[in-house]
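Q: I have 620 residues here and want to know how they pack in 3D. Can you give me a structure?
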Amino acid sequence: GTRCAHGEVFVTMPFFQGSGGLAAATSSSGRYGPASRLFTKIAVALAVAMPNALAMDFPGLNLPSLSDIAAIGAGSASMQDSDSVNDVVPETCSEDRLARYPSGWPAALDWGIYWYGPNDEFKKAEPRQQVKLVDPTSWFEQGDGYANSTERWNKTFYDPSRNTVLYFHGWSGTGAWSTKECKRVTSKCNPNLCPKGGVHELAKPWIEKGWNVGFFYWDQFADEPCMRDAEQKIWFDRGGNGLRWASYSPRNNTFQWKQYQGDAMSVIDLCATAVKEAMGDFFGGGTVRFVGRSIGSQLAVGCAAKLHEEQHVAAPQRITLLDPFFTTQEFTFLGTGVRCGRVVSSTGVGAFAQQATANYVKMLWETKRVATEVYTSAGSTSGLDSQAAIDMGTYSVQVAYKPSWCDGEDSDLKCEHQAVFPFYFLSFGLPPPPLVQAVTSPGRLLDKPAVTCAVPSASCTDAELRALLEEHILLMQSQTSASWDQVDGTDTFALGDDTFALTSGTMLNTITPDPAIEEEVAQSNAIEQRQWGMSRGFRLGSESGMSTKQLDFVVQIAGCILALPLLAFLTYRLISLASQKACASSTDEDEEGSEEEEEEDDGESDLEGSMKQSPLMEDH
């Protein structure tokens, strides 16, 4: 995303350029003069407020009430940015609860990942080692002061060798949490939702199987009166002046909006930064799973896409969407419209969020083999337009829970919307539910091997889920709609009596994943980065680091390469010296031979001379 002049925001998704992934959304102040804009505001306000005055209902439109008309001339900013305060400090803002957050939350901004341990205990994620190209000392894993992985997890609730699941919460409007009440969603089930006072520990099944369990908190950004404001922060900074966040000081009972002045242009940017800092570049777990609920599903998908775009080691292999939600498009007319119950001068961003999310789900599967599973408990996925619904329905498996036990609760819809959250996390400790014939009652169990994952579930392995998704895509391509719907166990919170049936009527036999797709997953950048032996790929990028075994190997090769010319030079010098020595010895022998020959020649000459003189002497 890029901030532009005149309050415009341009949003790009470079990861999927050329594949329908490049999208743009702009919001501007309009091209009409002040008088024209004011006249249009009043006209639109009267037109859309009249139905409320006459008690008429138009579902899907955020229509303002007559009380909002008085604020039209002054604009909506004063309404949006006004401070509000509780009548009294809530009991939930106890000193014990506030002491669990040394950051100063909720008065101070506190976003990022918290790791969960037993009994709903949690710790803020510590920054872990990241590889920097300009710092060679960071290329190799350094000690963190812990003797072993068990000690590390017991102290921090995180160990880089474990599988990891990260949860992304949604909007504050469901009542599960609130900044002004000092409440955050945690791994302990809401007492209003789970039976027996909410004693269920949602992280327990995962921890018992050796997983890291983390929650990404963006609650102070998401705590907006209007869900659409929170939703758009996921993707971009609408105003271009920093993401606003909610600050509540329980000590003086004051609430105010503040602007985040960091470099992040969206909550997706914040998420990617938090994951990289919390998990580091030396993560070695087998798999990473992102789980998002409501509008947090959009964040889970967007953050996953960004991590894969940046080829980070912690990019997930699986995405779970729990009751994913998308807000409806604003009503607009001549550049003026209704947004979050207010009349505004804005063209809005239309269906950008839903189209971007659906496109990411599609492209993450096609390019990275990331499997997406969708679980609903409040009806079908809300807010999707036709094309987004097709993509989302095709490239993700769909599971529909039917929590009829929510009937009679204070808010049936709220209960149904929240129910899928504990269902999914608690089901990790159980085998996948059985698939039955929908035409029988209560259903005929399939004759299938116990190891088969015939119904998508948290306890299915990644490979099993990919196998189901492959089968699901084939069914969708043959124009056969397919989803797994709950047919039994709907009247109880317990999961052990749940059974499901395929809406297509197709009975699944044992399904195995495509070996070619599994090979793609094994050779993906994120998976290969987690291998710290000789198999670690050298093509993983400049900031992926290398293993010590690879370093030793490279050093040995480099030593050999450097030693070869030195050895050749020394060999050459030895041969040269030996040759020179041999030549010198031969020369000395030749010189000695020459001297001897000269001496012999001299002797012969003397002898001949003496012989020549002898007759003369005789004649005399």
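Q: Anything worth noting?
A: The chain has 17 helices and 17 strands. The first helix runs from residue 34 to 53.
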